[in-house]
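In response to reviewer comment 3 from the previous cycle, which asked for concrete evidence that the modeling workflow produces usable outputs, we include below a single protein chain processed end to end. The sequence was submitted unchanged, and the resulting structure tokens are shown without manual editing.
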Amino acid sequence: MARVLVALAAGLIFGLGLTVSQMINPAKVLGFLDLFGDWDPSLALVMAGAIPVAALGYRLARGSRAPLFADAYAAPTQSAIDRRLVAGAILFGVGWGLVGYCPGPALASLAVGPWQTALFVAAMLLGMAGFRAVQSVGTRRLKQA
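The workflow returned the following structure tokens.
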């Protein structure tokens, strides 16, 4: 139960941070991404503040054997840059640049965003389900070969 409460608290703090920094405002994000137009550099300050906090967290985690509420850290298992990673990064960037949302801020803005936010989240979840379905079919074909 403590694990669930800590996850809930972390999610609420993260969502609050996204809201305060206006990362849930697609117009603000698109203004930041518009480098050659009406560029809004304010979200760079959000990143400038987040990077040292994350670095400190990684530094503290490096000195411990395991997280407080889990048996082990969930570190990435793959370190190679392959086609899937590059394709995923491109799709993420194009989607973020087109609508001004990425998954975390989109979920956080469900509480205060317009109906288009719910439509985006529904499309995002449908895309994730579609990817899993295609991946599952590909994995079954490999096993049969």
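The longest helix spans residues 115-144. We consider this sufficient to address the reviewer's concern, and the full set will be provided in the supplementary archive.
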